[in-house]
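Sat 14:20. Reprocessing the chain from the morning session after the first attempt stalled halfway. Input below, unchanged.
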Amino acid sequence: MSPAFALALPVVMSVLLACILGGLLRVLRGPTRADRMLAAQLFGTTATAVLIVMALATGDRALLDVALAFAVLAAVTVVAFVATSGRGRP
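Finished this time. Tokens:
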């Protein structure tokens, strides 16, 4: 790990933690289901970012595979939410 990356790592992780906390506030306060779903999407994106940073820090390439799986699952959940929350339901 380069010295510059070692210095930037706490800053990057702090920003990612702030993203998680912001999403948690949106989940708790709402006010709509769409707001909560977007916060869940933020959790998936942030988890992907955390795993990528961890993979770069540790050199473990398996974490990149897990990050890819998280990214795909986050996208699928949004598609499922949109498909089930249509306006013209009987």
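The longest helix spans residues 3-29.
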